[in-house]
């Protein structure tokens, strides 16, 4: 007997991609799970990969996504800008605080007479300056604004031992100068004619340097601005005598300063009167901010005992005022101011 004939033939089954492509009817899908090897079973999945920031642990670097990276960069830029702004404010404040010190340095000696603060937000007693009478015979010919330095509760420099205070001395000189100019037919404005506080104690009354300039600049008829002061140099109490300052590009102010030098030299013939031309920020604010010819006069040194005691006398005050008045009138007659 032929053994091959006695053996039952197994039907041929062919699977491909999970499908039966050669399948006898009786065996289609029959025993598929058993016949199909485990590795033949194919499964299709969609895998989404997300990159999630993880917290930085000790010894590990933090994983930062692109959006977070740019946010950090922006924060750093903002921080740098804020630091720069803060630094600029500090520098500006320091510059303002040392402005008066730099002005003194321009004099080449460490004087202390111009330490008055910039009180630009403080209003004066009157909204308008004090306009004094004007003789009819020379109406409009010459107009002068007199600024007695400091004033009110700002005493300026002083010699407390002798009872000499700048704001009192220069106010007395300023008032005498006003009277002498009026007698000559000059129209006069004054930044203030008293050091007394206003009746209303709550009302601010201290002039700042900007306020003084602003007031004078608002008057269209002023031909000269003169600021009267006292000086001090306690490091050497032998220093004495008047000094006169003007801006280097102010020809009118220069002409007045030279006339003042001549007149003051008659009072102190043994002492050379110093006249200094100033420029840019290396100058006094009341000079560089004036729209008209301007001079600043240091009438003497309160740190010098003899000169300080003289300042208290009517004679000294009258002599200084007369010298200034004569110089102003001469400057006008010589065409330096109009």
Would you give an account of this structure?
The chain has helices spanning 3-6, 32-35, 66-97, 99-105, 166-183, 209-217, 251-265, 285-288, 305-311, 314-333; strands at residues 14-16, 19-22, 130-131, 143-148, 158-159, 164-165, 187-190, 224-231, 243-247, 274-278, 294-301. With 338 residues, the chain is α/β, with parallel strands linked by helices. The strands form 3 sheets. It has a 7-stranded mixed β-sheet. The longest helix has 32 residues, at 66-97. It is elongated and about 145 Å long.
In short:
This protein is an alpha/beta fold and 338 residues long. Helix content is 36%, strand content 14%.
List the helices and strands and how they pair.
Elements: H1 3-6, E1 14-16, E2 19-22, H2 32-35, H3 66-97, H4 99-105, E3 130-131, E4 143-148, E5 158-159, E6 164-165, H5 166-183, E7 187-190, H6 209-217, E8 224-231, E9 243-247, H7 251-265, E10 274-278, H8 285-288, E11 294-301, H9 305-311, H10 314-333
Parallel strand pairs: 4-7, 4-8, 8-11, 9-10
Antiparallel strand pairs: 1-2, 3-7, 5-6, 9-11
Summary keywords:
338 residues; alpha/beta; 7-stranded mixed β-sheet; 36% helix; elongated
